[in-house]
Amino acid sequence: MAKNVLVLADVRRGKLRNVTYEMVSAAHRIADGGAVSVALLGKDVAALAAGLGDFGADRVYVVDAPELEHYTPDAYKKAFMECVRAANPDILLLAHSAVGKDLAAVMATRLGAGQVSDVIDIEGSGDHLTFTRPIYAGKAFTKVQVTEGVVVATVRPNNLPPAEGGLGKAGQVETLAVTFGPQDLATVVKEIVQKTSSGVDLSEAKIIVSGGRGVKSAEGFKPLYELAEVLGAAVGASRGACDAGYCDYALQIGQTGKVVTPDLYIACGISGAIQHLAGMSNSKVIVAINKDPEAPIFQVADYGIVGDLFEVVPMMTELLKKELA
């Protein structure tokens, strides 16, 4: 039976994140002939609606308002509920991000829906959907089916089949007028102060070069950044490197940091503590560089290099420069 699917677009710094296209592509596949809609919320976001039809969206509902410039639960809940009323979905897909996780719980409660978090795969279509999610820090996986009612699911970036577009659909765009009262603005974000960041978004990066205590200092991350620049990669770190003050906690990957699933993960000077493995062990290809041949990281690595990272990484950088030139 056909299902209507509503996707909440994941917008960051005025751009749609890749996970949005992954969810729209998945929605087109699982709808089984039902309608695929996208909710686009924020300030000055209307222009982002163009092109979503090419990935499978039949309709895009836009709520463009100054009150939505920054995420606040009450305002976003009201705006998203207007999209839900318009789309009448059987399935809601949100990114497994800070915003998506918070809003998914609110919507599941409001709709009396079944919720599935941190989905890495969706099998089947229509009435026969199976969601796969990791448990026990990625050591096992559960298959979840919601047998009745609406489904609210959060999707981990970089896991669903790549969204390639090319469907040639125009996709209708409908602007919804939402009025926000004092009860919707109990919390107002006046300003966000954040550290300047550049390069690839860590949670969506296809390639990650990551450093651990073996980098020895903040200066020790320099070769990693040089390699990352050549590969067009993001730079990450273990908690040990962050705790030692070698880098900012924004780079932390692991059980208490970001969970990533890149195509290629290069671990430099990382021993492979279980807490770190929980954040990256599902990477498609893992390359480990460590002086200790007994380091646990080699047990999960597809390729291992026993050696000094300060010798190996610059060699890799130079070789890749020549190969990619």
TrEMBL record:
Domain Electron transfer flavoprotein alpha/beta-subunit N-terminal: 5-189
Record GO terms (molecular function): electron transfer activity; flavin adenine dinucleotide binding
CDD domains: ETF_alpha
PROSITE patterns linked: ETF_ALPHA
Domain of life according to the entry: Bacteria
Keywords: Electron transport, FAD, Flavoprotein, Transport
Family: Belongs to the ETF alpha-subunit/FixB family.
Binding site for FAD: 213, 238-239, 252-256, 269-276, 290
The protein's required cofactors: FAD
Protein name per the record: Electron transfer flavoprotein alpha subunit
A Pfam family that the UniProt record links to this protein: ETF
Protein's GO biological process: fatty acid beta-oxidation using acyl-CoA dehydrogenase
Classification via InterPro entries: DHS-like_NAD/FAD-binding_dom, ETF_a/b_N, ETF_a/FixB, ETF_alpha_N, ETF_asu_C, ETF_asu_C_CS, Rossmann-like_a/b/a_fold
Cofactor binding, note field: Binds 1 FAD per dimer.
